[in-house]
Amino acid sequence: MTFKYKTIDASGNATLGAIEAINMEVAINALQKRGLTIVSIVPQDEGSFFEKNISFFDKVSNKDVVILSRQMATLFEAQVSALRVFQLLAMQSERQSLRKKLKEVVDDLQAGSSISGALSKHPKVFSPFYINMVKSGEESGKLDQTFMYLADYLDRTYEVSSKVKTALIYPAFVIFTFVAVMALMLTVVIPKIAGILKDSGQAVPIYTKVVIGLSDFLVHYGVFFLVALIIGGFFLWRYLLTENGRYTLDNAKINTPFIKNIYGKLYLSRIADNMNTMLLSGIPMVKGLDLTSNVVENAVYKKILDNTVEDVKAGSSVSDAFSKHPEMPGIFVQMVKIGEETGQLGNILKTLAAFYRREVTNSIDSVVSLIEPAMIVLLGLGVAFLLAAVLIPIYNISSGV
User: Fold this and answer.
1) Measured distance CA(291)–CA(274) in Å, rounded
2) Domain ranges, ordered by start, for the chain
């Protein structure tokens, strides 16, 4: 059960927050053990259905975590205590969901938890990669640098991922609109024109028969076809949630023409950037590879990184382990090998990450520049075919041909 409270600490500072406890007595004892004087404590109202839905849509985005990390880096650099940092951020946060989680972090810190331990209770906001970076910063005493590394890394990841999503949204929207308009034409307009053509008794071209046949099918069986699509989509979605389904989808992303260059280079950039950030924070290579496999967000590359971890534990170098997998480009493997031999692996990975980020941007620009004219041509041909199938027979009837 959750209780809202207002307390005053030994310095006279008032604090508002919430605490989880079995009952009010346990909650009061927990707050008093922290040396706090309780001003008020009441059970938290669960809220209306509408408020719950508002909270559902008020999710914490990657952009929020980027901004939060930069704020933490600035505050830690100013020598502000960890407890005060999270108290300030909780008060300033505009998102209800993030504010609630930060208040819980404050409660955990007051109870004696470490920063990484408190953040680890919110895996939907802070990934294992993030938690381990913070833990490394705590051990090294460089939390300000750690949060700045995290902010820079998340900012780069967010920028590239957003560019990929934006590039794919446009063609998806255009195709959806085209399909919707064509379906409307075939179910509303074409049946009326088909009646005119049939009443004329005149022979119609084969392409007109195809359009009329498709129209008849959608009119008579469109509902069943839509239900079949929904059921098929549901089972496809369920399959994609399985391990085999995720692997199939992720494999398609890096092997499908036009988008494979985008996704392949996106994941390589993410791998290099993750590993570089880990090395900067003093995290061992094996641990860094293991954490990178959990945040790469592609089942194929996750499997490659998991195999690499096992090979490195067995005594192999990272470059030799990478070379066993055709998905890892030769230039990537060779650059990592040079970094290992020269002791400059961090700089090499930083260079690779920047290189593949540029390649992702260039690939997106190239694909978009090709998709736009291709879609215009294809959509134009589709509309022209539909119009020709309808207008030519009508013209023949009106001209008496």
Assistant:
1) 9
2) 1-46, 160-401
CA R_g for the chain: 29
CB 113 within 8 A of CB 90: no
- What residues contact 150, with CB distance under 8 A and at least 6 apart? 69, 73, 130, 133, 134, 277
Using DSSP, state whether 204 is helix, strand or coil. Answer: coil
Superfamily of domain 160-401: Type II secretion system (T2SS), domain F (1.20.81.30)
**Range list of β-strands (E), 331-377:** none
Q: How far apart are CA 191 and CA 179, in angstroms?
A: 17
Distance of CA 169 to CAs 115, 166, 225, Å?
A: 38, 5, 25
Is the pTM higher than 0.90? The answer reads no
Length of the chain: 401
What pLDDT score does 236 carry?
A: 93
Q: What is the phi/psi pair of residue 326, to 5°?
A: -65, -20
pLDDT in tens, 206-239: 888 888 888 888 888 888 999 999 999 999 999 9
Q: Which amino acid is at 51?
A: E
